[in-house]
Amino acid sequence: MLSRPLFRIVPDNTRIRFMKGAVAGLIVSAILSSASVILAFYPGLERGIDFKGGIVMEVRTPGPADLPRLRSAVSAANVGDVGVQEFGSRDQLLIRLPVQGDEAGTQQAVNRVRGAIEEASPGTRVLRVEAVGNRVSAELFRGGLIALGLSFLAMLLYIWFRFEWQFAVAGVATLLLDTTKCIGIMVVTGIEFNLTTVAAILTIIGFNANDKVVVFDRMRENLRKYKTMPLRDLVDLSINETLNRTLGTSVTLLLTALPLALFGGDTLSGFAWLMIAGIIVGTSSSTFIAAPIVLFTGAKTLRRDTPAVPQAAAP
Predict the structure, then answer these.
(1) CA-wise closest residue to 290 among 171, 177, 181
(2) Which residues cross the membrane (predicted)?
(3) In this predicted structure, what is the pLDDT of residue 181?
(4) The pTM is what?
């Protein structure tokens, strides 16, 4: 009874013809990624304080907050364009202030806002204050982009040295498409682009690269094992053979991220929801994007070692 797993997501003898949808998968992926790039510039990502600079104040009122009254009170403090919104519950607010120039100006703006909200809603407490200047935010933004670029370069070199160039091209191209889709999801859902979401994107890149390496490794094994099998059939076979492992790993990570998204609070929810979206995108791209790219780029080269079929002797 214990000699075999008690539960399999898909049967061991599954033989789905994934490559019948190879062209459709690439077209849909290209459309979604192109739309995501356009959305990244217009309307653009919602940058967090890490990359935009400014002041964030988290406050808690004695009871349900009167937002119109508090907005009027904070606007009257003359500290610039101020945003006030609920943060997790009706008695918890997030107040955003623009950059004030120097440390003295920042402290003065915080004191003005604190006085205004305490006057409008006596008993209100300031839970935390975060301030990031323009120079620091620019450096953090540049550092985040450099981290993303280096991760792609590392994945390219790793896959290129471990596999043939066709796999490297497929892996890096698919990771780029996955990342652009995640950025599009951030724009559509309003998830802030900050250091936390950069960490989520880097984690997604690592997980998706590992998922694709597993499929690529099985393809390479089958290329040696089945010398005459057509490449399209071999790609389908490799995906089916690793399907249980791929789905099992993805579901395990989803079950880890979902509670964090639901109960981790507003600070971690963006990270967790982006992780969930990235897992779904990466799992599907291993089948419908990376594999078709290998199929099309390796149609004439991955079979170069195929032995010639002996000709029948002439009578």
Answers:
(1) 171
(2) 21-42, 140-160, 167-187, 193-210, 247-265, 271-296
(3) 92
(4) 0.73
